[in-house]
């Protein structure tokens, strides 16, 4: 980075319920206020085998659609994606990967991105981090983002995760309820369920984390 220039930060993310975008927007606002140039790159999942289930929200058959992604996740099948040109249009000082957990690990679109030539170009010699919204499981997702990004030549700095309320079963029921209705309900199939998705204090945590990233970028710039 040239002396005196603004740090450039790229957010690469996938989202369906817009929870990852909430994290990205909160972090980008803080980094922008701290003098960074930020670019947002939403990965589009266009694989013909899976994309139709993500075309509309709410989902007409949420349980069936969610279960239908298990083979792609556990068999690690590649997925066809579209990557915005902004990813490879320039050089960045920091790349933030927004990666919601699907079942136990990294979602298919972000996996596909991290295995792409574009990821190799933007991550090589660049610091990167990860932000993971999830029901329960975040460790393998974040570890996978770190491993794949490092393999592409990136330098990992500490990541962050945001876990939804409820245990394993009730958090799943809450998510299925929301995916099928687009609304927050108190019960699903007669079972009392907690709120799903991100809560306000978690977005405050995203802003705090972004401030810490800004501090690191400021130190790097002065150095």
List the defining traits of the structure above:
six-stranded parallel beta sheet, globular, 223 residues, 40% helix, two-stranded antiparallel ribbon, 8 helices, 12 strands, alpha/beta
What would you call the shape?
globular
Biggest sheet descriptor: 6 strands, parallel
Mean residue pLDDT: 93
Query: What proportion of the residues is helical, as a percent range?
Result: 40-55%
Rg, please?
A: 18 Å
Amino-to-carboxy terminus distance: 11 Å
- How many DSSP E strands? 12
Structural class: alpha/beta
Give the helix tally: 8
Note the run of SSEs as H and E: EHEEHHEEEEHHEHEEHEEH
**Fraction in beta strands:** 15-25%
Would you write up a description of this structure?
- With 223 residues, the protein is of the alpha/beta class.
- The chain has helices at 19-33, 62-67, 70-74, 108-114, 117-123, 139-151, 168-181, 200-222, and strands at residues 8-13, 37-42, 44-45, 81-82, 94-98, 101-102, 105-106, 127-134, 155-156, 160-163, 187-188, 191-192.
- Helix 1 (19-33) crosses helix 8.
- The termini are close together.
- The mean pLDDT is 93.
Summary?
The protein is of the alpha/beta class and 223 residues long. The protein is built from eight helices and twelve strands.
Topology:
Layout: E1 8-13, H1 19-33, E2 37-42, E3 44-45, H2 62-67, H3 70-74, E4 81-82, E5 94-98, E6 101-102, E7 105-106, H4 108-114, H5 117-123, E8 127-134, H6 139-151, E9 155-156, E10 160-163, H7 168-181, E11 187-188, E12 191-192, H8 200-222
Parallel strand pairs: 1-2, 1-5, 5-8, 8-9, 8-10
Antiparallel strand pairs: 3-4, 6-7, 11-12
Helix pairs in contact: 1-8
């Amino acid at each position: 980075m040239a002396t005196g220039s603004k740090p450039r930060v790229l957010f690469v993310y996938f989202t369906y319920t817009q929870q990852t975008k909430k994290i990205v927007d909160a972090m980008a606002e803080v980094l922008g206020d701290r003098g960074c140039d930020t670019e947002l790159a939403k990965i589009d999942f266009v694989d013909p085998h899976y994309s139709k289930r993500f075309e509309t929200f709410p989902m007409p058959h949420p349980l069936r659609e969610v279960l239908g992604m298990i083979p792609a996740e556990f068999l690690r099948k590649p997925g066809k994606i579209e990557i915005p040109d902004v990813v490879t249009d320039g050089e960045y000082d920091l790349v933030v990967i927004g990666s919601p957990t699907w079942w136990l690990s990294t979602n298919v679109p972000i996996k596909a991105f991290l295995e792409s030539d574009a990821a190799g170009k933007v991550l090589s010699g660049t610091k990167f981090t990860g932000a993971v919204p999830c029901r329960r499981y975040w460790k393998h997702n974040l570890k996978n983002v770190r491993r794949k990004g490092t393999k592409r030549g990136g330098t990992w700095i500490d990541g962050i995760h945001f876990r939804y309320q409820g245990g394993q079963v009730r958090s799943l029921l809450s998510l299925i309820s929301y995916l099928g209705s687009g609304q927050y309900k108190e019960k699903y199939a007669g079972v009392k369920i907690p709120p799903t998705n991100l809560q306000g204090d978690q977005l405050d945590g995203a802003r705090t984390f972004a401030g810490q990233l800004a501090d690191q970028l400021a130190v790097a710039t002065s150095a």
